[in-house]
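Input chain follows. Return structure tokens only.
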Amino acid sequence: MKNKIAVLIFVRMSSKRLPGKVMKQIKKKTILEIIYKRINKVFNKNLIIVNTSNKKSDNTIIAFCKSKNINYYRGSLNNVFERTLKCCKKFNLTGFVRVCGDRPIFDYLLMKRMLKIFNTNKYDIVTNQYIKSCPKGIACEIVKSKIFYQIKKKQLKPSEKEHILNYFYNNNKKYKFFNYFDKEYASIKRQNYSVDNIRDLKKIKSIFKKNNYCFTEQTKKILSKINKI
């Protein structure tokens, strides 16, 4: 089958620390839409899929996707591994980029560089998390779908069902990894640019106040100048 790689944006409304955070607005756009717009700078819209649960609480996300003509997939709330596997099967994906819905400044230029490595077809996973070398909110993981198909349900621990790459990191000798290291991001790796709470949201709003939604300067150069709030 011809390679078909998509971006899966993992979102849900039932976040415990900041419920409904993906629908929080920054300059009149939701966090989900900002992530989508940034990824769309690299990926065609047909290859961007919002991955959410089949719970009633996530109907808001589906309504938003329908209003913006964004692809989506619904599945188990807690068994995200199974949801991902079924999503890959439905859309016939040979690989995917994992992006969480709390990353409105996800670096799509970094993703583009990592995709070049992934497209050599030498690795099962290209990541900057195997040895964590970037700030929270800039994580990027690109995975071959076939390694999901090889796993039997009984092999997975509960934490590995929720955090879909944990099994592969825990059994790293079975798979071919490429850990992408970026010196400038590594220098600020202890900082946080994801949205987990109101304080984080205020920090991200301050970044977008001075930059447009899809600022094309390298994200790391902007972040390195920002003081902690």
